[in-house]
Design a protein that fits this description.
The protein is α+β, with helices and mostly antiparallel strands. Helices cover about 20% and strands about 35% of the residues. The strands form 2 sheets. Strands 5, 6, 7, 8 and 9 form a 5-stranded mixed beta sheet that branches. It has a 4-stranded mixed beta sheet with strand order 1-4-3-2, with helices on both faces.
């Protein structure tokens, strides 16, 4: 049996409101938000006495989702190094297709985002960049040129 789809990516955060605002500015929509606790979640994630607040965001087309979780109990653990470079093992970024990359970069800078490198062009196909947003979250942006 093959998988049906990729459902979502989870990002654990400290300031849920700031990260939601960042992704909403990017163009995502809040699908839901609320507390998550109880034995079922403890069994799924392997942590006892867990209490968290979760927000689910979706892309405008409804296919891509990002789940944000803020742990109230136990306290979340920080990864090292905090601003890991692109060659660090693990998930490094989430890539989004955008219509106007310069507009999106300008709007996200209003939420504290900074370019990781620079805005670059790949042949005459894409303009691309990585932005580091709140809590060190890296998003990639790709504007298709043709």
């Amino acid at each position: 049996m093959a998988i049906q789809r990729m459902d979502n990516v989870l990002i654990v955060v400290e300031d849920l409101d700031a990260v939601i605002a960042f992704f909403v500015e990017l163009g995502m929509e809040v699908e839901g938000r609320g507390p998550v606790e109880g034995r079922w979640v403890e069994r799924v994630i392997g942590i006892d006495d867990v209490r968290q607040e979760v927000a689910m965001l979706r892309t405008p087309d409804g296919h891509g989702k990002v789940e944000l979780a803020m742990f109230r109990r136990p306290t979340a653990i920080s990864a090292e190094p905090k601003d890991a470079p692109a060659n660090t093992r693990g998930i490094r970024r989430i890539m989004f297709a955008v219509d106007d990359i310069e507009d999106v970069v300008a709007r996200l800078r209003g939420h504290g985002a900074e370019l990781v490198g620079e805005l670059a062009q790949f042949e005459d196909i894409y303009r691309l960049c990585y932005l580091r947003g709140p809590e060190g979250i890296v998003v990639g942006l790709a504007e298709q040129l043709r």
